Automatic annotation (TrEMBL), chains A, B:
The keyword DNA-binding belongs to this UniProt entry's keyword annotation: yes
The protein's name in its UniProt record: LacI family transcriptional regulator
Alphabetic keyword roster: DNA-binding, Transcription, Transcription regulation
PROSITE patterns: HTH_LACI_2
GO molecular function list: DNA-binding transcription factor activity; transcription cis-regulatory region binding
CDD domains: HTH_LacI, PBP1_AglR-like
Pfam families: LacI, Peripla_BP_3
InterPro entries registered for this protein in UniProt: HTH_LacI, LacI/GalR-like_sensor, Lambda_DNA-bd_dom_sf, Peripla_BP_I
Highest taxon in the source lineage: Bacteria
Annotated HTH lacI-type domain residues: 1-55
Amino acid sequence: MKLKEFAARIGLSQTTVSRAMSGYPEVKPETRARVLEAAERLGYRPNISAQRLATGRAGAIGIVFQGGGRFGPHSSEFMGGLSTRLQKDGIDILVSTVETEADEAAAYRRLAASKRVDAVVVHTPKVADARIALLQKLGLPFVVHGRSEAERPFAFLDIDNFGAIATATEHLAGLGHRRIALINGDPANTYARDRDLGYRTALARRSLTADPALTGHGEFTDENGFRLMQGFLALPAPPTAVIAGSMMSALGAMRAIRIAGLAVGRDVSLIAHDDVFPYLSPENFVPPVTTTQSPIRSAGERIGDLVLRLLRGEAPKALQEIWPVDFRVRGSTGPAPG
Amino acid sequence: MKLKEFAARIGLSQTTVSRAMSGYPEVKPETRARVLEAAERLGYRPNISAQRLATGRAGAIGIVFQGGGRFGPHSSEFMGGLSTRLQKDGIDILVSTVETEADEAAAYRRLAASKRVDAVVVHTPKVADARIALLQKLGLPFVVHGRSEAERPFAFLDIDNFGAIATATEHLAGLGHRRIALINGDPANTYARDRDLGYRTALARRSLTADPALTGHGEFTDENGFRLMQGFLALPAPPTAVIAGSMMSALGAMRAIRIAGLAVGRDVSLIAHDDVFPYLSPENFVPPVTTTQSPIRSAGERIGDLVLRLLRGEAPKALQEIWPVDFRVRGSTGPAPG
């Protein structure tokens, strides 16, 4: 059955039928339900090309992950927020997983060429990130979760990583801590660079020197938090405070502190950055953990908004947001010992 | 530029070009890279319909989530495994998020009608699950993560939830515990029904009665684990042992036990089901947690295999797997007190 015949049989225009079946938002839910029910009953299968021609949209947003291992607690919260927002407009998310950086570039080329998505969301940008220039060249609309340096403006949402870690470092310095450690991410990533800058700037303001032996890098896992903290505590002059990049790193760091026979909040103060995981709340740690806090789920929702505004024709440079980060003092921080 | 002209200019067959651009597996990576590079350079944009006609495939697998809130630690591990497997064949995952059960049915109809996916993965099946009959009627291939009761056979992978919780319950009964609590999921879901059956069967074998006051249901969060455990401990005859449905529930339960001034492993024994989260390891709890264990990431990978075999024409009833669950005794379990 052709679109024309099907539309006539159910008494709707061809455009309405196409829009209803593409999942795009201009159609009332009842109309969509009626069209889908009729399509199933009458055995109507639309011609995808004709339908996309009618709506001009793929009805999906793409996101590319490098390595399935990248799916972790941060990605599920972010995807949860993004999908919650896109769902309201009936838009799906196309997830592509690739192995290498070169594969990721190929995936964007493929997405642009095949028109399977209307836009993509780029996550974990590097300070110098080839993906941005590539996407601009391909003409595939995109929003970046995070920041990067690029010649031409692009849409992004980032949190104030610099300010968050500067605040945390200043707070610890104000409590008399002089040896403050930092558990940070891969320094090629902008967020880790910004956190490092925040840390160094705050130390400098307090006339403290940043000791390279007190900074560690790695993925935000319990294991890395544990390993790095054990290393810090084995130094001739161990730190009396530590800033952990995530609640997962904090779990490991706290374990290392305890195993060393020290008490969190008394012998070693700890601050963690909390992306807000419903199952891992800083209030529920013993002692409750002082945090810099910004819900990554909300960032995902907001990026959904930005994508839709971009597709409605707003300029990328009008779609740039930097969110301040909350600071919450709890029991894991206290005056420097002795 | 038409496919014919583009293929001629780069000296490849039209079929090879179509396959390379669709991301399907029969094409060598070097050939795909060459085709994509040439398409970008020459400004070739394929006709999606022609391409799908050539390959007969959408190159994507669908998964529908009811509510963005369903994106949690389990879904990211599962998606990580699934995408790792599908990535090897260049296949993407199309994620649709919907609000209600009726919306979910509409989403499957839309996916079937629009041919945007070759198959779908169904998760968290209910004992009686309307999705299965619907997908069979729609002729959309699918694999279920979990089990359900249906007239016609379908492809699935499940873990032995019955056996896992029966083993855990028997172990506790063997240690002399008589009041054993169970923190379970929504009883409409098959996995929760099977766990409940395992629990009751093991109690009956040991001539113990199942006290309804010692079973709680809810999502597997820290908060629910805490709330349910506090309720159990407030009973006139509180339990001396508890089985938690996930590591998240275990976190909350352990907190409630500690707040009550009791020691885990001495006053109250605890066993948790561990889906294996790299950032929340039972060895790292204090005391280390006895678990029934099955990595949900591996289940995701294996379901990717099953989907591909289904698409290659294997019969659904030949694609049914039930995985045994490991049992690991650690410090959180001990003899019943007194």
